[in-house]
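Task 17 of the worksheet. Students: predict the tertiary structure of the chain below and write it out as structure tokens. Keep your answer in the requested format; marks are given for formatting as well as content.
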Amino acid sequence: LKMRYPMPRYNNPRRTWQYTNEFKAKAVQLSLMDGIQVQEVAKALDIHPMMLSRWRKEYREGKIVADKRKKLTSIDKEKKELNKLKRLEKENARLREELDLLKKWQRFLAEEHQNGIDSSKKSGGS
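Model answer:
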């Protein structure tokens, strides 16, 4: 007798995103600008950095070509957005550190206050 194993059935097959050549070209051109890192562009566009690296290679090889009829004026806007995102992330990190420090200070004061209450009980003071 031959045993039959049921094949897995996928009700919702995994979908892959299809990106236009124009999107890929803009992403690559943005990543090639001075002061911009591949990881930053990938994070801002919500794509994996390796995908962007592959697109950069394909762009160099001529497999991805930007539509020359469309101006890429939005690149400057996107660069400003990336810079704004970096600035906000730094500010967020600084604020988290400040909050953490304030919480530690609050705990310290609460412990000092509790120690003061405990020592006054032991000494019979009020």
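Marker's comment: The radius of gyration is 28 Å. The helical segments are 21-31, 38-45, 49-60, 74-123.
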